[in-house]
Specification:
By secondary structure, this protein is α/β, with parallel strands linked by helices. 44% of the residues lie in helices and 15% in strands. The strands form 2 sheets. It has a 7-stranded parallel beta sheet with strand order 4-3-2-1-5-6-7, sandwiched between helices. It has a 4-stranded mixed beta sheet with strand order 9-8-10-11, with helices on one face. The mean pLDDT is 95. The structure holds nicotinamide-adenine-dinucleotide and magnesium ion.
């Protein structure tokens, strides 16, 4: 980027999370390119205050109203505006004080602020995949209407996005999403039934927030990503394939009409796709660790075991049947993961809960082609 480049004002929704904190590292490393204008947290007031004092944003939002006084007091000697509550997230997303929203809230809670930012004409760096799973058609349609770019942060989708640069006229045969397989790759149900929360929270390659780490262990994460890919790249369900790649070096691939396959590679480090989403269409120099091909002796690939990790099969079903089924599946999954993280249900119960919810709703509340804008207002 040139030295005359104006500073890009970033609003990080979910600044205290895994993606949010890594994004702030990228911003801190590039003060001439970015400023953190908006920071939001759900209930981690201490970290939000610490971030605010370091980055001096225009606005902070604390989701939990009860923490408002603590944040306001701690920032009393600054000019930082403090807001609280769920509605404030949407109000701030509708303001003009920023250029790009990094959507890094976890789960369904990220949908409404992201929608407001799109309606407000702001560019979106999208980490929150649940937003597209729940309302991909609305989000992509509104993005086109408002001429808003949706730049993926999820490493697989960032990889596909990068593979597609310069290929606008060329047809995609399929995309191949790579999955590490999570900590329980090769395990069977008799093992999984006894898996404890602490064990499931240990991911072999990536350090992430609790919800996505559990989703990675159940392979639901890859299912959510299939639906995310469909919307981002306008694909048919049969054009989205998953392959297990335990080394997490190839972040995903695109196969074109002529059979040629492009892959994007790198060490598993989310700072790279985060930085790319913030600097797109440029790349900027950094000192992140580099790959050493002499040390990478194996890149292996295998079929996912969808009989054991049935969440992936359920997500494929939701992808195929479409309508409101992905939204229903996502809601059931958020509840299931929440319950597992509180030791209320076991690892395999999560799949049973999602499957039962999908079956029930498919029979009674399935809308294959509804007016989703009005549907979302009901949620
Ligand atoms: P996290 O749990 O570490 O952080 C979530 C952030 O959202 C926090 O700042 C939290 O305060 C905020 N938040 C949580 N619930 C909220 C609510 N109800 N209302 C408002 N704010 C709320 O999560 P994460 O791992 O950073 O993931 C964030 C999103 O990015 C997820 O959708 C995840 O799937 C996606 N993602 C994460 C990674 C990763 O490496 N962590 C990789 C790819 C995609
Ligand atoms: Mg991913």
């Amino acid at each position: 980027m040139s030295s005359q480049q104006t500073i890009k004002r970033i609003a990080i929704f979910g600044s205290t999370g895994s993606i949010g904190t890594q994004a702030l590292e990228v911003i801190a490393e590039n003060p001439s390119l970015f400023s953190a204008e908006v920071l939001t947290a759900h209930n981690n007031d201490e970290l939000l205050i610490e971030q605010a004092l370091k980055f001096n944003p225009n606005i902070v939002v604390i989701g939990d109203d009860k923490k408002y006084a603590a944040v306001k007091d701690a920032l009393a000697s600054t000019d930082i505006k403090v807001f609280a509550g769920e509605k404030a997230l949407e109000e701030v997303a509708s303001m003009d004080c920023y250029d790009l929203m990094l959507a890094a809230i976890v789960g369904y809670a990220g949908l409404r602020p992201t929608l407001k930012a799109i309606e407000n004409g702001k560019a979106i760096a999208l980490a929150n995949k649940e937003t597209l799973v729940v309302a991909g058609d609305i989000i992509m349609r509104k993005a086109v209407e408002n001429r808003v770019p949706i730049i993926p942060v999820d490493s697989e989708h960032s990889a596909i996005f990068q593979c597609l640069i310069g290929e606008t006229r060329n047809k995609i045969e399929k995309v191949i999403l790579t999955a590490s397989g999570g900590p329980f790759i090769g395990r069977k149900p008799n093992y999984l039934v006894n898996v404890k929360r602490e064990h499931a929270l240990q991911h072999p390659n990536w350090s992430m927030g609790a919800k996505i780490t559990i989703d990675s262990a159940t392979l639901m994460n890859k299912g959510l990503e299939m639906i995310e890919a469909k919307w981002l790249f306008n694909l048919k369900p049969e054009q989205v394939q998953v392959v297990i790649h335990p080394q997490s070096i190839i972040h995903s691939m695109v196969q074109f009409e002529d059979g040629s396959v492009k892959a994007q590679m790198g060490l598993p480090d989310m700072k790279l796709p985060i930085q790319y989403a913030l600097t797109f269409p440029q790349r900027i120099k950094n000192d992140f660790p580099r790959m050493d091909f002499k040390k990478i002796t194996t890149l292996s690939f295998e079929e996912p075991d969808v009989k054991t990790f049935r969440n992936l099969a359920l997500a494929e079903e939701a992808l195929n049947k479409a309508g409101n089924l992905p939204c229903i599946m996502n809601a059931a999954n958020e509840i299931a993961v929440f319950a597992f993280l509180r030791n209320r249900i076991n690892f395999l119960d999560m799949t049973d809960l999602i499957e039962k919810t999908m079956k029930f709703n498919f029979r009674h509340l399935f809308f294959p082609d509804i007016n989703r804008t009005s549907f979302i207002n009901l949620l």
